[in-house]
Amino acid sequence: MPRSFLVKKHFNASKKPNYSELDTHTGSLDRRVIISPYLYESYPMPVIPQPEILSSGAYSPITVWTTAVPFHSPLPNGLSPLSGYPSSLGRVSPPPPSDTSSKDHSGSESPISDEEERLQSKLSDPHAIEAEKFQCNLCSKTYSTFSGLAKHKQLHCDAQSRKSFSCKYCDKEYVSLGALKMHIRTHTLPCVCKICGKAFSRPWLLQGHIRTHTGEKPFSCPHCNRAFADRSNLRAHLQTHSDVKKYQCKNCSKTFSRMSLLHKHEESGCCVAH
DNA sequence: CTGGGGAAGGGGCCC
DNA sequence: GGGGCCCCTTCCCCA
């Protein structure tokens, strides 16, 4: 079973190692890998089969998620006026501070946005309130009634903005067709190695695989002249030369050259012991 | 058991 | 929008 189907574990997605120093260590390395013409001459890129993903049944566009605002439902708790429901009637209570579900469209770290401030000023002006219509926050369409806006959001705008593209081979969903196409390649595996027949989802994966046959190792360690076929493997190797390991156990402060080694260490019971 | 190398996959960015 | 590439991550294997 290809690893692509394994569930990805995000132990700490926010902790990203800084590899910026790699360039200084490998200053002589060209950032663009020059693939030997030999590879392309002897092993031309495979013809990608007709993309099944483009067939009409490949995906199901506009899959309305069940989180859409129910028609004629009361305002969901935590739904702010910025969600398209003007608070001119004074019915909308501010979302509870602990509610994190309403952060979907909030890119601002400030608890009070400019739009909220403008709304506050409007609230102080009754004439402005009267002139206010029920406006969709997604497409700016205005409606004279709240129910009209709610129906619009349920049947059109929310469905459009939250449409998903479902893989017909598995239950994964993607927000864009491009992402779905890329994913489906992990099922169809259109790039086949002509030497061993192993199939890959992307051409560059095949190129990397072909290096295992040719022995080409374009990435050299500047410290020990050891060569690698994969840049990421060189990067991991460079950590072995470093006195300061990037991955540290937060309990015992022991450091590791790889995150996977830290994970092993943590799973072995260090964190439990402390 | 630990550390390291090899191989591979997915997401994201750029052109 | 698609391809190429990079980065990060994971798994397997071995010393």
Overall pLDDT score: 56
Order of helices and strands: HHHHEEHEEHEEHEEHEEH
What is the CA-based Rg, rounded? 27 Å
Helical coverage, percent range = 25-40%
Low-confidence stretches: 1-132, 155-162
Q: What fraction of residues sit in β-strands?
A: 5-15%
Number of strands: 10
Compute the separation of the termini in Å. 37 Å
Silhouette: flat
**Structural class determined from secondary elements:** mainly alpha
Number of helices: 9
Main sheet properties: 2 strands, antiparallel
Instruction: Output the strand order for the largest sheet.
Output: 1-2
SSE arrangement:
Elements: H1 22-25, H2 37-42, H3 114-123, H4 126-131, E1 134-135, E2 142-143, H5 146-161, E3 165-166, E4 173-174, H6 177-188, E5 191-192, E6 199-200, H7 203-214, E7 219-220, E8 227-228, H8 231-241, E9 247-248, E10 255-256, H9 259-273
The structure holds a DNA duplex (15 and 15 nucleotides).
Keywords: Developmental protein, DNA-binding, Metal-binding, Nucleus, Repeat, Repressor, Transcription, Transcription regulation, Zinc, Zinc-finger
Region (Disordered): 85-122
Family: Belongs to the snail C2H2-type zinc-finger protein family.
Question: How would you describe the overall organization of this protein?
Answer:
This protein is mainly alpha-helical. Helices cover 34% and strands 7% of the residues. A two-stranded antiparallel sheet has the order 1-2. The radius of gyration is 27 Å and the shape is flat. The relative contact order is 0.12. The structure holds a DNA duplex (15 and 15 nucleotides).
